[in-house]
Amino acid sequence: MSDCQQSLFLKALRREPTSRRPIWMMRQAGRYLPEYRATRARAGSFLKLAGNPELACEVTLQPIERYGFDAAILFSDILILPHAMGLGLGFEPGEGPFFERPIRSPADIAALPVIDPNDDTGYVMEAVRLIRASLPRETPLIGFAGSPWTVATYMIEGRSSKDFATAKTLLLAEPDAAQQLMNTLADATADYLAAQVEAGADALMIFDSWGGALSPSLYQQFSLASQQRIVQRLEASCPNTPLILFGKGCGQHLEALADTGCAGLGVDWTMDMGEARRRVGDRVALQGNLDPAVMLTNPEIVRREAKRVLESFGKGPGHIFNLGHGITPGVDPEHVAVLVETVKSWKI
Description:
By secondary structure, this protein is α/β, with parallel strands linked by helices. It has helices spanning about 10-15, 35-45, 45-50, 55-65, 80-85, 105-110, 115-120, 120-135, 150-155, 165-175, 175-200, 215-235, 255-260, 275-280, 300-315, 335-345, and strands at about 70-75, 90, 95-100, 140-145, 205-210, 245, 265, 285-290, 320-325.
């Protein structure tokens, strides 16, 4: 266990008063940083970088060393679990991830193996151990995974999709098989996240990048229910480790997400932070939610829009400043320095 329980990030997740707003950024270790691009070039590919514990540790630490963020997040990928299940993950330049052997039938779902996270994804756990040992003792480390629905979209479609037609068809036409897939992924994800905690992660996050693509009924039946299943399993295995749920385009489900028992909710940029706070009250901490496009503008606009988010949340505890989604590759690193300085100097 690291020595960071009194860190601003973990105190904010517990909705305790903090001296200032903590800040970190989704994808803070990424292509906008020249040092990251240099390390990735040495690795040879994204998958080789994520699969090398020493290099994954190196890039995780880079934004901490440059900006002094209040939390680090493990450098990895949400598709590591299906890769371990044998679907054959690859990355095409400019096209993103793909699977050589996507699942398309109930038989494919029934054939998915049970994963041992310490064996089949042992390199991730080694990266967590290395990062935790290398981070400042007061800086928390966030472990993460993709939500079952979001991960399933890639497993079923075989790659990124604009309409998720094949995945949605499976949910509608084969609901029992789809439920089996969600349960299989939820249980594997809970075990995977628990192993990250055992290796040294101080907090956890689930990314539901494509939850907003589902109708309300399908969302509740498949995405929300599978996340609830993970929360319950983690409450049993890691009761003292806070979990943040982030759903892109899921603002209409904010109350239901808050009711899962998670510690925090990530809010995307399409919702006013003050409105989100009014809707969930003090049930959970909130994280977010600057529009990532702001980071592509100029320092004056970065300062102005960051202050808008801070003012929108208002006074009181329970806010972690972040973007409403991951930082984009073309951002000037100096704009990030401006953002960090603006948030850290904000009087609360």
